Amino acid sequence: MPALTLREVLHLDPVRAAEPELLAGEGALDRPVRWVHSSEVYEGANFLDGGELLLTNGFGLTDADEEVRRRYVRELAARGAAGLAVEVGRALPSMPPEVTDEARRLGLPLLALRRVVPFVRITEAANRAIVARGLSGRSVARPWGDDHTAALLADLADRGALNQPEVEARSALAGFHPGPGARLVGVSLHGTRDVTTVDRAVRLLGGAGVLRAAFPGDVLALLALNGNRPGDPVRTVQDAFRTAADPGLTVAVGHAVTADGGWLRWSDTLRAARTTLELALTVPAAEPGVPDGPLVTSSRALALERELTRGGVDANRERLAGLVQHALGPLLAWEAAHPSDLVRTLEVHLRNGCSPTRTAALLHIGRQSLYQRLERIESLLGLEIDDPDLLGELLAAACAHRVVRGTGATVRGGLRTVA
Q1: Domain that holds residue 385
Q2: Which of 43, 77, 245, 252 has the most other CB atoms within 10 Å of its CB?
Q3: Among 274, 328, 323, which Cα is nearest to 299's?
């Protein structure tokens, strides 16, 4: 049996309930759909791996200019997306004509969803159908290997219609038995379709329990650490993946939850890992990474970025620009006229508790050079940067500057390129 097609997806009940209108790509309705994914994070194309139908509520397109919208469609087509479905009527009153024009030019199927249907219903129905088609045993290509595990992870990550007994039964079927008090941590990897990286990390963690499967856009895993294990579970998992992951991979770690806290908590950490991965692929890093090593980050490390980008960068651009100009205007003016790295220096310094030793080491400069930069920053801003009353505003502004500057960052070899 061939893979599920976009035409077949359009006939699923939750999709029909959304009253989809096909605006472009009529000749591509028989292309296979490998997965259905929804994203509210801007630049969602970076998260796709080809063959996905992307659902979006349109927040990221509301305040974007014509070229940004056209580039968005071009990036989706370049990624090999099966199609784009945009909810029209709430955040986005109507489909922007340039989006339709670009989709027609590229032959990318474009759907306007005229009625509001929770995306979770659409993704659940479509991805279950995709899984069922793969389980038929006659599909020539499966987007993952272990079907039971992948189906469970997909339902948890998409917050499908589940209940605790079902999750426990399906976990047992997949060989996942987190003990009493176990701490669960979701992990999402980009840059590979191989689960062996997860397996290596699990061995380093002393054989922690794990659910893991490869999806079109990422490898997703749910790790169970013994509740009696000392230390911070998130740090422990990050350290394991820094050793286990190959150079060039991006690894995002969710927050730790208790295994007996209910399946919604399991879903929370997986969703946090995936959202963090999207941010890691589209926002330049605050601090220099390890040369020729993997990028390993966490939902806590990108908490500020997540809050600043709720609804998308384009929807918040004016507000973010105002925040940056108000707090950092003199620094930006100086950097425009002089080669320097003052804003980045300020953010790294604030993120590391204003420790000169740590900041200098991360920036790979001497302490004397750092002191000169800090004096220049304080002189330009007319304030003391270690003033507790200013730390929040300055850090938020420096982060906002990096987020806005990073919009449109390109991906090279499956990884973002960062400034």
Answers
A1: 312-416
A2: 252
A3: 274
